[in-house]
Amino acid sequence: MKKTLLSWFVALSAATTFLIQPITALAEDSPKEIRIGISSAGVGGKPKVGYSSVTTGHLRGVLEEEFKKDGIKVVWRLFPGAGPATNEAFSNGQVDFGWHGDLPAIVGRSTGLRHKVIFSAGRFGPFYVVVPADSKAKSLEDLKGQTISIFKGTALQLQLSRLLKRYNLKESDFRVISQDQFQSRTSLATGDIAAAITSPWTLEARGVAKRLIEIRDDKFLNAPLTFWVGEEFEKKYPHIVQRVTTALIKQAHWSSLEENRNEQYKLWAQSGVPYLDWKKDWDDYDLKERHSPLLDDHYVAAIKQGVVEAKEFKLIRKDVDVDSWIEPKYLNTALKELKLEGFWPELDAQGNRKDGKK
Amino acid sequence: MKHNNTITKAVAGALLALAATGTSAYAATNEELEKQLAVLQQTVEALKQQVQSQKVAVPENVATQDDVEGVRADLENFKYDESRQQERNTAKTFRDTTLFGAVQTRAQLQDHQDNAATLAGNGNPASNASNRSSTFDVPLALLGVRGNLYKDYVEGKNLDYQLSFTYGKRSDGTNNSDFNLADAFLRYNVLSTNGGLEASKLNVTFGQQLIPFGLEAQAPEELRPTINVANAPAFLGLFNRQVGVIVRGDVNPFVDYAANYRAPLVEYAFGVVNGNAQNKLDNNNSKDYLGRVALTLPVNYASWLRELKVGTSFYKGSANVKNAAGTAVLNNDGKSDRYGFDLYYNHAPYGATYEYFQGRTDVARANNTIGEAKGEGHTLTLFYTFGDQFFNSIKSVAKFDDWHPQSIQPFYRYDYYNPNKNAALPGFPKDTNAWTTQTLGVNWFFAQTTKLQIGLNHVNYDTETATKNDYNELQAQFQYGF
């Protein structure tokens, strides 16, 4: 019988080794797969998202096309847990690239996550404070002492802080709770919260909520989105980082062309956010400005301001050196290869076009 | 509207022309009048055609009344189907309810057929009951519901409930089993549950529940890491559910917004229970008291020291101490105290837990005096995880199909228990009943709520006897939850 057990033990060890083997298969000169973390998910947890040229790249399969010939698999991981989930996945070696809002990227960097910013992945856009349809509030001041919902840990947290500062208010003037986008919309519909920072359109269509504040022209309320690569991956596979960057900058160019505006809205509608909502949020914006991948003065100033604010609002404990965080060489090479130098307008630190155009 | 204006203008123009010609009507011949009439008719015809063509030229992307009616019909059909299904095909409850359950199915093989049932207390069937060396078994079948009785949307001070049942084999020789009440409690969250990660927590649970002692004893059945539970807490009765009221909470949570990681600096629990285990009234006039404090290192999620927790627990129990014959109670406030210390570290892929247990139990001697048995146990578990199963981000990643990350977790467990280190008492000889179980195993999480566990146990008695021989055991178990 003991012999039997010994053979069982050997079999158990062999089985474990066999089961583990495919998971631990080692990479060679090129990775077997490229894993991209997207800090968002579609309605109801759909693995499709709009808003950015990067997510349009996902919807159009541009990276899959780029790496098809090499047999490199492209894995897109879309996280309903938003920016913090991307950080968690990166901390545990589950993603190589990330698409992030400013706060989670800054907080991640401040807690020791090692990645390099390689291009900007979207900026500007409208900002809404939405209240239940029967709300009597006429201003933020009227909501004092009431409950405001945001998804803490995401870029929305900094946006709320900036907004409150703009109106000389403090977070402690309200009861700020943490809900994801879908929970906060439900709570608005049932009137259980006084306000949320969220898209108003589907709620207004149902007659359950209305806009209290709509800001469409603030250059710093919605800070630029960031696309980064893990330092370890970058060191190992710089040629792959360049190809990923070039493919996505090519995509940013496609996304910035006026002729593709409508098609892009239709692609984004696959996320479950209706086509008409995209139109309402985007029609009055210049696509080139919103999809600019440039790491220009505006990008740097906005991220630096985000660091200062994150510290001021006690969301980070350690400082972040933005200058050493940014690695522009992949973007510059891509712009040169694609002959797109000068295609996107450079913005100064205040968010104004350097060429003087409005 | 635009073409209506055009028609009006055109007709008005034609009539004016007719009127103008009418001023010289006396001079006009019938022939001229007919000509004018013909022109007028042609004008009207042309205008009619213009109107027709403008109707056809309605832009394609403008919904017509028919389109709107069509959409409305679809919507009404959808609403009808929804309400019909809601009424006829949906299980209903008065309150928010989640149905949950867990089942284990097991096979095991032992290389000794003559051991006494000393280890039956840890849920493992004794080997010698029918002189068998192998058996199939269903050690666990649990079915429950949970939800909330009152949902406080504003502050999240919810009133929650849980009710669950587990099956238990009968030991009367029949093929029957019982369905026993397991959890039956309601829980009120005194502090807000939606105030964000930085808010402290505090809740009060009233009813039958697992007790907050150590690590493994307070984990629900479906979350315990190994096939057999640890020996010391099993034999010291710490897996028993108790009826009473227990307060649980934490203070000063450290929050790392990078990964929404929350590490409460201090977690605490205290409570009062009957001490007579589940589904029974109290059996004496003394209540049992319990408490636990755990400290977690306040470090960022990215730190190597994340999820490093140290805890200590106590259970101050009172038991009826009966005489050796079991016919009379010698002391209805006998000691049944338990103490514990635990260490927890989980930084994927590495993980380790250690628990120390000490039990002090009053036992009657043959001369009706009472002595104290001092039991002691150590349980160390080391594991390494291959795969993504335990990352919140990966578990909740957006997906269309039933994809779920797989994980394989080899582990080693060292589990020692000595029922009595003090002077010998009836049923509690000094040291000689001690044994060690070492387990080498692997958990394969191959679906979202299902795992295959394989364990090779080596049981080693400090003192072997005719009915207590060292033995080896191979176990395989599927566990699924829903």
Word description of this protein:
The complex is a heterodimer of chains A (358) and B (482). With 358 residues, chain A is an alpha/beta fold. Chain A has 2 domains: 33-123 and 223-337, Periplasmic binding protein-like II (D-Maltodextrin-Binding Protein, domain 2, 3-Layer(aba) Sandwich), CATH 3.40.190.10; 127-215, Periplasmic binding protein-like II (D-Maltodextrin-Binding Protein, domain 2, 3-Layer(aba) Sandwich). Chain A is built from 16 helices and 10 strands. The longest helix of chain A has 19 residues, at 2-20. Chain A starts with a helix and ends in a 21-residue tail after the last helix. Residues 1-5 and 21-27 of chain A have low confidence and may be disordered. The longest helix of chain B has 27 residues, at 30-56. Chain B has helices at residues 2-22, 30-56, 65-88, 231-235, 392-395; strands spanning 96-110, 134-150, 159-169, 177-189, 201-209, 242-256, 261-273, 288-296, 308-316, 318-322, 329-347, 350-364, 370-384, 386-387, 407-418, 435-447, 450-461, 471-481. In chain B, helix 1 runs antiparallel to helix 2. Chain B has 5 helices and 18 strands. In chain B, strands 1-2-3-4-5-6-7-8-9-11-12-13-15-16-17-18 form a 16-stranded antiparallel β-barrel. The model of chain B has no long low-confidence stretch (mean pLDDT 87). At the A-B interface, helix 1, helix 4, helix 5 and strand 7 of A face strand 14, helix 5 and strand 16 of B.
